[in-house]
Amino acid sequence: MSKLAVLELKGNLNHQGFFVTLHISQGNITSGTTIDGYLPASTQLLEDLIQWQQDYRHLSGSNRVLKPYKIKHDGTINPIETCTKSAQKLLQQFQSWLRSESFRNVELHLRQELKPNDSVQLLIRTTNSEVQALPWHLWDFIEQYPQAEIALSGVGSYPSFYKSNLENSNPNKVNILAVLGDSKNIDIESDRKTLNQLTEANVEFLVEPTHQKLNDILYEQSWDILFFAGHSQTESEGQGILRLNSTTELTIDEIRYGVRRSIANGLQLAIFNSCDGLGLAHALTKLQLPQMIVMREAVPDFVAQEFLKYFLRAFSQGQSLHLAQREARERLQGMEKTYPCASWLPVIYQPSVTKPLNWFDLFKHEHETTSTEQVIVEPKVAAPTQKSRTLSFGIKFGIVLVCSVLVSSVVLGMRSLGLLQGWELKAFDHLMRLRSGQNIPDNRILIVKIEEEDIQAQRNQGMKMEGSLADQALLELLQKISPHQPSVIGLDIIHDFPFSTELQSHLKEQNLIAICQAMSITSKLPGIKPPEEDFMAQKLGFNNVPVDVDGVLRRQFLGMPPKQFCPAEQSFGFRIAQRYLEDIHGMKKEWVRVSPNRNKKIQLGSQIFPRLERNAGGYQLSQGDANGYQVLVNYRTTSPKQVNLREILSGSLESQLAGLISDRIILIGVVDRNIDTHPTPYSKGLKAEEMPGVVVQAHMISQIISAALGERPLLSWWTEWLETLWIG
C-alpha cells in the first residue's frame, strides 16, 4: 500500500527560514504524531539557486520556451560546463541545508516511519516559489528510497462546482485530449507518434486550435488526461502562458470554466510537455485538478520527446504516476552530458492529498462527481456597550435583564432557523475528538477489503467482472471462510444483477446480508435494486446513510419504510447487528412505548435506542432529512481489523483464518479513497482522511452491539426545554 508523507513549509528562504510540519499516512491510517521542525534562512542557498537558473538559461538549443531568455555571453566560456558546476554547487548547499540540526528530528521520524522498500509519495507543500524550484528529488532520503517520488503542492485550493457528465467518454479506453500548440522551431510530431502508440487510449488531437475551439472541446467531451506540447512560459509575476498557435497566447485563467467543467467530468491528469510550467501548475491548483506533470525550466525539444516516451511506457504498463515519473526522470540522466540537468526538469504538482494515480484507474473510468461545498456565512453579534457606572444598581440590573432576554431571544430565534447549526456541529466534532478511551477496536468485526490491487488480481485471473467483486471471487471467498463459522457475513457491495447459478446455490447456506439502496428523499435518486427481485427480505438491508449539509456523517439509520427499489425495512448495519446479537447472545429486537404520548422506540436487551428528532441537539433538520429511524453515531477512533481479499484467496492467511473469522462479523467492501468515502467528526486538516463506506458500516454495527450489551453508551442530547433554560 502506498504511503504519503506531507512536508509543509511556511516562511521564506532569505530572512525568516521555514517552519516545517511533517504528517505521514498509510491508506486510511494516519500517523498519530505530527513532527515539527525548522529549516533556517540561507541567503547562500538562494544565491546558488539564482546562479544555477541563470547558468541554465545561458544554454543554447531548440527548446519549448515561449520567448527566449534575454541573457548575453561572449562565447568564451563553455555554458554546459558552467551550468554543471553551478548545479553541483547548488546541490551541495541544498544537502547541507537539509542536514540542519533543527530539521534532523523531522528526517529521523520520516526514516523511522517508512521502510526503504515502501512506495512513498512525498508532498512538498509550500507557496514559496524559490523552495519549489530547489532539486528536492536529489535529497538523500529520495535517493535511498527507490520507491519514493517528490510532488510539489501549494497551499489552498478550490473545488469544482459542476456535475459529472460522462456520456461522450469512451468507457473502454483512456481518453486523452492532446493539444499540439505552436510548433515553431520544435518538433512536436514526435509527441503525436508517441501518443498514437498507446493501444488502450483514445487520443483526440487538437492541432494549433483557436481559443474557442479548445474551450468548446473541454466543455463538450470528457477526458481523463489533458496533454499539451508546444511553447509555454511562466512570466516574472508567476503567470503561466500557453501559445496555441502563431497568433494566440492564453493563460489558464482564460479557459478556467472549460477546465473546471472538464475536471468535474473526470479529468485526472494534465501533462505539459513544454517549458517553464510551474506557473501553469499554480493556476490549475486553484481549479483543483488532481495531478499535473510540468517542466520546471525551459526544456530542450529532444529531452521533452524522450521524457514523454519513457513516462508513457512506464505509466501505461501499470506503474503508478509517481513511480513512472521517477523512472522517466532518472532515465533523462543519460542525456546530461549534452543537456545538463535534464533530470531536474519534470516534476509532479498536485494541490492536495490524492491517491496515487495509475493507468488502470483511468481505464476503469471510475470518476467521482466533485461535490459542491456550501459556504455558510456566520453572523457576528456585536457586544453590547457598557453603561456608565453612575447608574444605580436597580437600573443596571434591569438593563442587564432586558439585554439578557433580548440576546437569548435572538440566539433562540437564530437557532430555530438553523443559522447556528454549522457552528454547533463543528463544536460537536471538536468534543468528539477530545474524548479519551475510544481507541480500542471492536474485535468482533473483520473487514475483508477490496482495493485496486484486488480488482486487478481478479482481472489477471480472467474472472468475469461486472463491478469490484466477481461472482467467482465471492464464491471462492465464501468457500474459504464458511468452514470457520462466522456469525454473519455482510456484503457491502452493489450487486444489482443476479448472482451466478453456482453462487446462488451456495448463498442459500450462508448467513449473509446483502444491500440495496432506497430512493433518496432529498435528492430523488431512484435507488438501487437488490441482486434479485425475490431476494429474501430477511437477508437484505438498505445502505443509505443520512449526510449533514457539510458532508459529514454523524447520523445513521436503523430503519425506514420499504421503498420501490429497496424492500428492506432495516438498515444494513442494524440488520447485521441484530443477527449477531440474536445468534451469539440470544437477544431479539423489541418495540417499547416509553410514555403514552410518544411513538414506540426500538429496544435491544435493556438498551432503548431513542430516535433522533429533527431539532435534537444542534440540529434543525428538514422534514425530509429527519425521516426514518435515526440515531447519532458513536465512532471509535480505531477501526476494526482489515485484511485484503487477495490475501485470503491466495491462501497466505490460511493458518490464521480460524482465529480471524470464528463467531465474528465479516464485512466485505471496497476500500478506495475515490469510491464511497465519507468525512466523519474525526476528519480535520491534513489528517482529513475520509472513511470508506464499509468502515463506516463497521462503526455503526459496533455502536449498536456495544450499546445493546451495555459496553458503550449511546450519544444523547438534552430536551428542548433544558436547552432553552441553559441558553437563557
UniProtKB/TrEMBL annotation:
Q: Name one Pfam family in it.
A: CHAT
Please list the residue ranges annotated as the CHASE2 domain: 420-728
UniProt source species: Symploca sp. SIO1C4
Query: What InterPro entries does its record include?
Result: CHASE2 (IPR007890), CHAT_dom (IPR024983)
- Output the lineage of the source organism: Bacteria, Bacillati, Cyanobacteriota, Cyanophyceae, Coleofasciculales
Q: What is this protein called?
A: CHASE2 domain-containing protein
